[in-house]
Amino acid sequence: MTPPLLLIDVDGPLNPYAAPATRRPEGYGTHHLLPESWVARNAPTPRSKVKPLRVWLNPAHGPELLSLPYELAWATTWMDEANTFIGPRIGLPELPYIAWSDLFGEDPDGLHWKTRDVVAWAGGRPFVWLDDELGPQDIEWIAAHHPGPALPLWVDPRTGLEELHFAALREWAEEED
Ligand SMILES: [Mg+2]
Questions:
Q1: Model-level pTM?
Q2: What fold, for 5-18+58-176?
């Protein structure tokens, strides 16, 4: 049996960026990261003047994700940089990642710019997609266009991944087994 895919967004699920800035969520560590994609987005500001991103990460999340009966992949604007900046800090090995066809693009039907790529990348395999930006229109579109089971699971960017998400992931994998 091939396990279902677990497509993981970074900002929101792993990095609860919308939590109150003065109160780092419990269990998280603070990292100041300067990925090249962030430097590029700040052009023409020179690299030395770009303010690093403040990223909160919980080192328990890597082992917890790895213990799930899923095949993990990145579904994040960090793309391959998640493998250098995020994964090693929470104990995840190098993972495949979705290379977006239209980063931050506007969708003609009002879908999230990731949604069509997520479904194309899954290639018909069962998947769960963790993201803080997916909405009802994405859930509907995925149900209509993905030929297998799929669970788009919204995560609150004020809290990040919580036990309820891990419980839902375990339960879903069992049902699909
Ligand atoms: Mg996000």
A1: 0.95
A2: Rossmann fold (3.40.50)
